[in-house]
Specification:
By secondary structure, this protein is mostly beta strands. It is built from 3 helices and 16 strands.
Length: about 300
């Protein structure tokens, strides 16, 4: 009996140790704690529906491309977001009339929101003229009484934007980090023209590596005082945290940016943006995020 009990204790200890070892350590040190509900290694054979939507409940996408759940896949240890051409038979009357008639694309949105902490994703871009992005946004996802009326601001933090195969060589290997603050009412890609002018709102850098050749890590440290962006562990940009005090959703997507990068060459599609993992660590001892106004 005693031998069996000892064996049980040893096995339990080993199992506990294995679990502990599987919890990723924050690259920024001990001041952060891991947040499982906002993190994913994408090692299963399907997207974890307890953590993610494989669409955006509030947004169909920018014309002429439409987000499709069929273009979201988890396979071989990675989340894969694909941009593809619409076949003529796939362009129905409704989407044609609305201008969604050329491309399919993909988006994933976290079901819960996070605030102060360190956010990191390991990504590899697609080889097509499509924007690949990792970002935070939408404090009012469940509050139409705020989002669609005047009187508030909706924040967005772009941790990573890049184009894997730009038509304009001036965009080649250029990494973008940006913040936005839009006055409400806010409706993605349709009603968001009233932008609050924030200082030091954007950064870009031509990297010395090909975004589509291998995976690289892209991170954001979000504290009450500052926002700091990282590429492969190197701090590349920092700014004062002047407005970002409310929880935001995690976003990953591939987008046709006709007015920025242009449209992709049809011969380059389908193409896939691959995400090896998303990891989030909460900032210990941080103040409570700013609360949303009470419903009237």
């Amino acid at each position: 009996m005693r031998a069996s009990f000892i064996a049980f204790v040893v096995v339990a200890a080993l199992a506990s140790s294995a679990v502990a070892q599987e919890t990723p350590e924050c690259p920024l040190g001990d001041g952060y704690e891991f947040v499982p509900e906002l993190s994913d290694e994408f090692n299963s054979d399907s997207l974890d529906s307890s953590k993610w939507w494989d669409f955006n409940p509030a947004w169909r996408g920018r014309k002429p491309a439409l987000f499709s759940r069929r273009n979201v896949e988890v396979s071989d240890g990675a989340l894969r977001l694909t941009a593809s051409l619409m076949k003529p038979e796939e362009v129905d009357v409704e989407n044609a009339a609305r201008g969604y008639d050329k491309y399919w694309k993909a988006i994933v949105k976290s079901k819960t929101k996070g605030c102060y902490g360190y956010y990191e994703a390991r990504c590899k871009s697609m080889r097509a003229c499509v924007c690949n992005a990792f970002w935070l946004y939408d404090p009012f996802s469940d509050r139409p009484d705020i989002k669609y009326v005047e009187g508030e601001f909706s924040e967005e933090i772009d941790i990573l934007e890049y184009c894997g195969k730009p038509n304009d060589k001036g965009f080649e290997r250029v990494y973008y980090a940006t913040i936005h603050r839009y006055a409400t009412p806010y409706l993605e890609s349709i009603v968001n023209k009233k932008k609050f002018k924030t200082p030091n709102y954007a950064y870009k850098e031509k990297m010395d590596f090909d975004f589509g050749a291998d995976y690289h890590t892209f991170g954001l440290a979000w504290t009450p005082d500052a926002l700091r962006w990282y590429v492969d562990g190197r701090e590349v940009f920092a700014r004062e945290n002047d407005f970002f005090r409310r929880p935001l959703h995690i976003m990953l997507d591939c987008e046709i940016m006709s007015d920025w990068f242009g449209e992709p060459n049809p011969e380059d599609l389908p193409a896939t943006f691959s995400i090896d993992y998303v990891r989030v660590w909460r900032l210990k001892d941080a103040p409570e995020p700013e609360a949303l106004p009470e419903k009237k």
